[in-house]
Amino acid sequence: MSVRDRLQRGDVVVFAHRGDSQRFPENTLAAFESALRIGADGVELDVRLSADSVPMVMHDPSLLRTVGIDMRVGGQSSAELHRHDVPSLAEALDLVRGRGLVAIELKDDVDVREGAAAAAIATVRRTGMDDDVMLLAFDHRHLVEARTLDREVFTVALVAERPADVAALVEAVGADGVGPLALLIDAPLVQRAHRSGAIVAAWTVDDEEEAAGLAGMGCDVLITNRPAAVIGRLRP
Questions:
Q1: What are the respective helix, strand and coil percentages of the chain, to the nearest 5?
Q2: Strands (DSSP E) along 107-152, which ranges?
């Protein structure tokens, strides 16, 4: 079932943040596989471009924290990154295809160059995942670029502060939804978003009771580091 179909049905869609990242290394194929096996609706992952402009799955600009090597993602070829177990976006999509959804966050620092959205969309098309993917970004220019390339791509504007006007934000960006920090979300915000035709995606929701409260407000998407616990609370 596509992203739009799942959301139109009214289900709360649960994405595993960087995969099942509490049991496996984050943003790895093992973490994604585990997340799907425990019942997550999909996986959330981060994309940066390699030096040869291949979308690679890595949160940080450097491999230092996750791999222990002080090597910048944007300064290395995709082949070199593969040698350090950094998967490509294509590999991740191939793993999830037919089994779940994917939320792709385009990172917004120096290593995300112009064309990141184009590279991601091209990969999504090649893997046949067009209907099963949503693009997320704090730098909303990536979402505007994505919309010019594919009018049907599902996009979510991430925000770290409470938006003063949700409707104006999604209209300006051409987004399908807004993604606030979970602590910023209340029922009026959700209602305003829904009135504007936008969905609300909360990050990062690791407490089961918080997840239940957000679902009760009508929040559409929950991104969590604890998918098994959140799913267990929402779908006992």
A1: 40, 20, 40
A2: 133-137
> Is residue 13 exposed (0-12), middle (13-18) or buried (19+ Cβ within 10 Å)?
buried
To which residue do tokens 């994505």 refer? Answer: 146
pTM of the model: 0.96
Residue type, 48: R
Cα 223 to Cα 18: distance, rounded to the nearest angstrom = 9
Identify the segments of the chain with pLDDT beneath 70: 108-113
41-92 tens-digit pLDDT = 999 999 999 999 999 999 999 999 999 999 999 999 999 999 999 999 999 9
Q: How many CB atoms lie within 10 A of CB 147?
A: 18
Contact 20, 80 (CB under 8 A): no
Q: Is cis: bond before 224, omega within 30 of 0?
A: no
Helix pair angle (116-126, 141-149), 10° resolution: 40
Q: What φ, ψ does residue 76 adopt, rounded to 5°?
A: -120, 150
SS3 (DSSP) at 12: coil
Q: How far apart are CA 35 and CA 29, in angstroms?
A: 10
CB within 8 Å of 60: residues ≥ 6 apart? 66, 73
Helix (H, G, I), strand (E, B) or coil at 101: strand
